[in-house]
What does this fold into?
Amino acid sequence: MVPLNYFLVLSAVLFAIGTAGVFLRRNLITVLLSVEIMLNAVNLTFVAVGRYLGTVDGQIIVFFVMTVAAAEAAVGLALVISLFRHRETLSPDAFTALKW
Amino acid sequence: MLLLIPLLPFAGFLINATLGRRLAKSISGGIACLAIIAAFVVSLLAVLDLRGAAGVHALRQVVFTWLPSGDLQIPFELYLDPLSSLMILVITGIGSLIHIYSTGYMHDEPDSEYARYFSYLNLFASFMLVLVLGANMPVMFIGWEGVGLCSYLLIGFWFTKKSAADAGKKAFIVNRIGDFGFVLGMLLLFTTFTTLDFQQLAVAVSSHATEAGSWGVITIATMLLFLGATGKSAQIPLYVWLPDAMEGPTPVSALIHAATMVTAGVYMIGRNAVLFTHAPHTLAVVAGIGVATALMAGTIGLVQNDIKRVLAYSTVSQLGYMFLAMGVGAYAAGIFHLYTHAFFKALLFLGSGSVIHALSGEQDLRNMGGLKKYLPITYWTFLIGALAIAGVPLLSGFFSKDEILFRTFSGGHVLLWAIGIVTSLLTATYMFRLVFLAFHGERRHDAPAAPAHPEEEEPAAHGHGHAAPAAHGHGHGGGHGTPHEAPWSMAIPLILLAVGSVVAGYVGVPHALKGSNEIESFLAPSFEASRSVPSRTASAAGGAAFQTVAVQEARTEQPGAEPASHEPAADEATELTLMGISVGIAFAGIGLAWFFWQRNRPLTDSLARQFGGPYRLLLNKYYVDELYDAAIVQPIKLLSTGALWKGVDAGLIDGTVNGVGALVRVGSTRLRRLQTGSIRTYAASLFLGVALILGWYLWL
Amino acid sequence: MDVIAFYVFGAIAIAASLGVVGQRNPMHSVMLLISSFGALAGLYVILDAPFTAVTQIIIYAGAIMVLFLFVVMLLNVPREEPAPASLAGMLGPRAIKAAAVLSVVMGAELLYAVLSIAQSFFSAGHAGSVSSVANIGQALFTKHAFAFEVTSILILVSMVGAVVLAQKEHR
It folds into this structure.
């Protein structure tokens, strides 16, 4: 039996990697990909803990998370497309209209 | 029933204040006069009631419980005993005569002003009656403040004239300084004795030892009360408002500044006689200040050129006599002089009003003369008043002034007596100077026309004292046409007051002249503590409210009080001698006045020029006003403008408010830089938050 | 046996994720992410959650990643410019540098949190029959029925949103 901790550590590491990706990458699509990594890390946590608690609820949550992730990816990409049309670039630094 | 006495004039005030401007003069004047005459009738009835009931020594009436607050139980209570009976008769009686006089004097005013005048006059009478009828200090204080207010309103009656408005303000403010002392004294008495009812205070104090050698609570409290009295009764140091108060209409000067309001201080000391008897230091101060004021005012009055100013200083001087009497423990003598002084001073003021009225506003003595033949009634009544104040025998002033001087001498205060005698001389002199200058000889026009004469500093030059406001005007300026005698509405009060000045003194004929000095025995119970004090919380529920309670008498003998009604025979010789001296002095004064101002006027004028320095000093009232201005008024102004206005208000308070605004603005300018617009920065700050929260939960 | 599988799949997942974050070519990033998802599916199998594993492949790797791929190809996303040589330059503005540090800190916090969970808290594990599809279905449609329905609306909304947002501008 793999101890729970192992899964949790793995998940933490993946989450951190995803976080780093969010603000280190200068390409919007890659930023979205990093968000997906983070979501997956969370999914792993849920399933692992659900397994070790003996319930099925962990997997239910994962089911919903995946759904939401899909929806979010769709809308996010649509936004990226329209932004690209506007500015011809995908670097986050180009979009600074929300200034003071 | 006691409540009716102040209530009637108050009703008159309400009617005239609200409806007056629409009423014809005869109606508004009539209402006012009716109110005060009715008050006089009720007072008379109340006094007869008191006298008639055997063994009863005072009447009380609790109207309602005013301040029920723990230990402090203050009912609005009225109290009638011999002292206050005398006062209410004087106030309502002489007040009625002055009201009647005013209907004639103020006749040229427009309707609304006329009504306003009478409403103020009634209000004043109402407050003064509350003052003297009050059974405890707070009720007296209501009256005290109220008459100060009315004094302000009436002095500044012609408020469009700057000097009148200023005089009103000065009166009020100087009075307030005195009132401050009064309140402190009142509070001190309350904290020491937990009661403010006069009779209870007297009982409580009489169980204390006399503070002969020390400065105890009673001494300090009475000193503070006396400070209030100096403000109200125009003694040193707070007398400066009274001469300026002559800016008001002359009947106002007669009523307020001769017969009634200024006597409030004397009355207050009389009412608290037991307290003051237990504080010999205060009595010494009272006597000293009284006699000093008398002397000082007498000297100033000698050289003034405005007829009303002379009378004003004369009032201050006579008040000094009353305080001298109170200070040597002769309370009844002081009140006696108050009573006679009311008659002849009111008479003198009203007479001067008649002169001013006849001359269409001229007030400068140097522009008068020879009025004897034009104004006979005024002249003869005025002469009677002048003789009375000078202390000529058989007139009222003689008896009262003499009583004071005798008691001063026999109390061992020889120096005070000597100063008193000198002041008597001055009194006779300046008063007859006035008579001779105004009524005798030929009409003169000696006053300089332009006000900028360096030697004359008083505003006598604008002799149209009361004719300046736009609404008031006789057809012609001073000096043209023959002066006309006063109308009957003015003449009758003059005659009645003259009669009073003669006969009023006969209630106090001393034993030395085989009289029985009834007034002293009449007033004596008021100056002692009575044992039969009703319980403290006299509540005013239901029907009991308006019943006057008769207070049975059971007097205790005061260890320190002067024996009231008997004088040893040996003193009678002294008294006769002293009497002789003061009579001689009176005639000497008249003679001096005749010599200097009737016979040898050029000599007088040249003397004035020769002794220019002292003359100017007296003419400018010893420069006291200037001194006060420099020492007190200017520093306060500087402090207010420089420190309080600029420093505290503009700097501190505005600075704080503006500072908060500036702080917010600066803060927000810095804070808004967080919105960089860069998405990555936003994401970064998100994760910063997450990291911090995680850290919080993990390690704390 | 399981442990070895865990380490293998774990290593693949981490390596792939690092690649996603470090790669400059977006196409490569997407591919690497697909492989990461595959590794995760394997991990789910180890955890006795076959249904989740399959769902992961179908939805994530099969649908979402394909979507990403389409967009990348549609936009013809260029290679990202090479990062500036220095680490400071790579990270960009100051705030970002600070945040980078923070993500490490956060990771450390997570690890700390995770490691301090008492092992004995969890039971040794139940049989895999708990996670049968039937059980999942039962829980989903009874206990969590409301959330299920709401999710459908969510998907509808996102569909509409995506269509609207990605429209060519009129005129």
Q: What stands out?
A: Chain A touches chain B at residues 19, 22-23, 92-93, 95-100 (CB under 8 Å). The CA atoms of residues 30 and 64 of chain A lie 23 Å apart.
